[in-house]
Amino acid sequence: MENQQNQSTRMPLINERAPEFEAKTTHGLKKLKDYEGRWLVLFSHPADFTPVCTTEFMGFAKHYEDFKKANTELLGLSIDSLFSHIAWIRSIKEKFGVDIQFPIIEDLSMNVAKSFGMIHPGASDTSAVRATFIIDPKGILRAMIYYPMSNGRSIPEVLRLVMALQESDKTGFATPEGWEQGQACIVPPPKTTQEAEARMKSDYKVTDWYFSKTK
After folding, report:
1. pTM for the whole thing?
2. Residues paired with 72 in a beta bridge
3. In a structure prediction context, what are the per-residue pLDDT tens digits for the chain, which is 215 residues long?
4. Do 147 and 186 lie in a common domain?
5. Residue 163 domain-assigned (yes or no)
6. Is 132 within the bounds of a domain?
């Protein structure tokens, strides 16, 4: 708890260890360490029983199996009670026929939200903005996406980004705009004039010395 409060004064940074947490969820107590060996998408929403958040949760639920196939777990969060979360989940299933299969953190203390920089005073002092954090199997924060309260995020983009990060880890190549699984990746540019000359004669698909792609 004290560690979480100390971290609340500093925004998390990409490629650093994600803030540790231990919190009550709709699936019981969860800690960051529980997700070691798997990717984790931790995402916050402003409040239960709100329309934009409802569409987002149904979007995550729709792609739940796709995330699972990518060795990725989902974990939601809002500054609401477990009872509110449970009632909202039941309402979504009853009214929309969508089953929310992933846990949601109860964060009434706002400790987790603050440690991850989910509270933006310009938006609200008591609600988390639409923040998404992608954490790798070693607990390293690899990507962050922030949306305003008025606009829902794209769940397929979150999944695409997870898969792009996994591809880069596996191959060492970067991925271009809009990259999808199976498409060509970008080869890191040469760092010397000799390497640049050799690149022009390589088997890569070379547009120019600094821009090459490969399958």
Report:
1. 0.89
2. 39
3. 434 444 445 789 999 999 999 999 999 999 999 999 999 999 999 899 999 999 999 999 999 999 999 999 999 998 899 999 999 999 999 999 999 999 999 999 889 989 998 886 654 544 677 899 999 999 999 999 999 888 999 999 999 999 999 999 999 999 999 999 999 999 999 999 999 999 999 999 999 999 999 98
4. no
5. no
6. yes
- Residue finishing a domain among 127, 153, 179: 153
185 is known as an active-site residue: no
Question: What tokens does 110 get?
Answer: 């706002």
Q: Determine the residue type at 14.
A: I
Give me the CATH number covering residue 198.
3.30.1020.10
Query: Roughly how many angstroms between the first and final C-alpha of the chain, as a whole number?
Result: 46
**Closest to 63 (Cα-Cα) out of 47, 46, 43, 80:** 43
Name the helix (H) or strand (E) containing 65.
Answer: helix 64-69
- State the angle between helix axes of 51-62 and 82-96 in degrees (0 to 180), rounded to the nearest 10: 70
Residue 162 counted as domain residue: no
Q: What are phi and psi of 36, to 5 degrees?
A: -60, 135
Tokens standing for 129?
A: 């903005």
The domain of 207 spans 171-214
Over its C-alpha atoms, the chain yields an Rg (Å, rounded) of 20
Which of 40, 42, 53, 129 is catalytic? The answer is 53
Beta strand residue intervals within the chain, DSSP E: 22-25, 28-31, 39-44, 72-78, 104-106, 130-135, 141-147, 185-186, 205-208, 211-214
Tokens 């004669």 -> residue: 201
